Amino acid sequence: MFQETLSQLLESTFATIYMVAVSGLVAFFIGLPIAIGLTVTAKGMFYENIVVHKILSSFVTIGRSVPFVILMVAIIPFTRFVVGSSIGTAAAMVPLSVAAIPFFARIVEGKFASINSGLIEAAQAMGCSPFQIIYKVLLPEAVPGIANSCTILFVSLTEYSAMAGAVGGSGLGNMAIQYGYYQFNTPVMLQALVVLVLLVLIIQFTGDYITRKISHHSI
């Protein structure tokens, strides 16, 4: 019995890590360009475009305002189209990614906004192209902030993954509900909870450590 529970715990833990890792990478590679777009099309910036900025901002705002559980149900047809199913690990990654993209984009946009505008003006005065300003000023200056944003992203995804497990996904959330709560097995539910907390702590401590290292290196 103990060996079976341990096997289930390990399987659920790896499923959670896999969901969070893939969803986080998708959110990073799609959310970062959106954050850049929001920044450079804002009023007073070198690619100022109010229409594009409002479209991107509306997408991010709407995406962030929909509760995750409702989002999971609302995009079931899309999830089935992408992965061929609405349950399981792969299916959970679709709503996790969709929810994480606007979340990450908005956080990173805030990090870009905190960059000293004088640096951008100096780069423009030196004749740098918009492309050069993005890759030689905006991104390098925001690296510590982006690292911190990634930490927040992965912590939030770990929490969301538990909700995904409760409504058809896999991972520790599914283990806690299916094998713990529904079967009145409190120890199993507590084990899943403890591992979830440990995962969050590991992500937080690792992210904070990387952010500090990058910040010191930048200085």
TrEMBL record:
Residues 13-207 form the ABC transmembrane type-1 domain. One of its GO terms (cellular component) is plasma membrane. The chain crosses the membrane at residues 15-40, 52-76, 82-105, 188-210. CDD domains: TM_PBP2. Keywords: Cell membrane, Membrane, Transmembrane, Transmembrane helix, Transport. It is found in: Cell membrane. The keyword Secreted does not apply. The keyword Ligase does not apply. Gene3D superfamilies: MetI-like. It is a multi-pass membrane protein. GO terms for biological process: D-methionine transmembrane transport. Belongs to the binding-protein-dependent transport system permease family. CysTW subfamily. NCBIfam families: PRK10782.1. This is Methionine ABC transporter permease MetI. The gene is metI.
